[in-house]
Design goal:
The protein has ten helices and 18 strands. With 325 residues, it is of the alpha/beta class. Helix 7 crosses helix 9 and helix 9 packs parallel to helix 10. The chain is globular.
């Protein structure tokens, strides 16, 4: 099961950690300052997903770099157009004359989300930290393991801001009323189902069967989907992209930057309001919504609670439509 944990306090920046209980590896959404993010979690990072590089989403990359320097493996970074130069600038801000170059040094593979469906890939290594373009891909699945995959869309926030969908692969289980003795064929029929090979011949103790004859004894369980949507202007275009990417998601982590009474400011600064974010989560069909990113104009816990409640009220209401100012 995928799990998302908010690592930033309400007065801190934004940072969410994605984990799987059965694995040591971790995955990070944004690098704002987050006091709950541990060194162990940083060292176990496999990939970092940056929404955009405004300071409150990227300032803590320095801390991550510091603790990853000696891990001796590749770490992936994903972000919108310009992220490769932004990452390089972090490295070039320091002197590295005493850095020993050996197989214990981290290196980064940066996937720059140029536009929907198109990604440029770079590498950057010590000690010169030069950007080297190594390839490009046409895909909307930007990361995939045997457990889950990640897709994205680009939202407008003055600059591009990437929204991400973390999707656990569906699992196949056997129905309880199985009339055959269990054996190696179970793995084989699951593989045949995933690879769409209905005519594959399988040998059971009870006889020889086509895979398609055994498919009815399988049941597919949908994997969990977690959405991460940060800074975006409250426009129909942005809302449509989010709905398309995250339709039916289980958990949605979303900015609720302004109270709706500050709508004029939200439109000017191309942020969402708590009310709009709650309504958007409802339109997505999310099972749960987590408003997590707030303006610093709301300085007390009581003020933040009001923003959160505004989002939840809009999420739980019925029949209300998004009305964009």
């Amino acid at each position: 099961m995928l799990q998302a944990t908010v690592k930033s306090g309400f007065k801190e920046d934004v940072c969410v950690l994605i984990t799987l209980p059965t694995q040591r590896w971790t995955y990070l959404c944004d690098c704002g300052y987050a006091s709950a993010l541990s060194i162990r979690e940083i060292k176990n990072l496999q990939a970092i997903f940056i929404s955009h590089t405004h300071i409150d989403h990227f300032c803590n990359f320095d801390t991550i770099l510091r603790h990853q320097l000696p891990i001796g493996r590749k770490v992936l970074i994903f972000g919108p157009k310009g992220i490769a130069r932004n990452v390089q600038a972090k490295f070039l801000a320091y002197n590295w004359e005493n850095l020993t170059v050996d197989d214990k040094q981290v290196f980064y593979e940066i996937h720059e989300l140029q536009r929907e469906g198109y990604v440029k890939i770079y590498e950057i290594r010590s000690p010169a930290w030069e950007l080297v373009e190594v390839g490009e891909e046409e895909t909307d699945v930007i990361y995939q393991t045997d457990m889950f995959k990640v897709r994205f869309c680009l939202l407008k926030h003055g600059i591009d801001c990437a929204a991400y969908s973390f999707e656990l692969h569906p699992t196949l289980n056997l129905k309880a009323d199985l009339p055959y003795k269990r054996g190696q064929w179970i793995r084989e029929v699951k593989n045949a189902y995933r690879l769409n090979q209905p005519n594959q011949i399988l040998q059971l103790e009870e006889g020889t069967f086509k895979a398609s004859e055994l498919f009815p004894y399988l049941e597919e369980n949908r994997g969990i989907k977690i959405g991460y949507v940060m800074d975006h202007a409250p426009t129909p275009e942005n809302h449509a992209k989010v709905i398309q990417l995250l339709k039916g998601c289980d958990e949605l982590y979303i900015e609720a930057y302004y109270k709706h009474e500050d709508l004029e400011m939200a439109i000017h600064n191309q942020h969402s309001t708590a009310k709009f974010s709650g309504e958007l989560a409802r339109k997505v069909g999310a099972r749960r919504v987590f408003p997590i990113h707030f303006s610093r104009r709301y300085q007390t816990e009581e003020m933040i609670e009001e923003v959160v409640q505004e989002c939840l009220d809009a999420f739980e209401s019925e029949g209300e439509e998004l009305i964009v100012g």
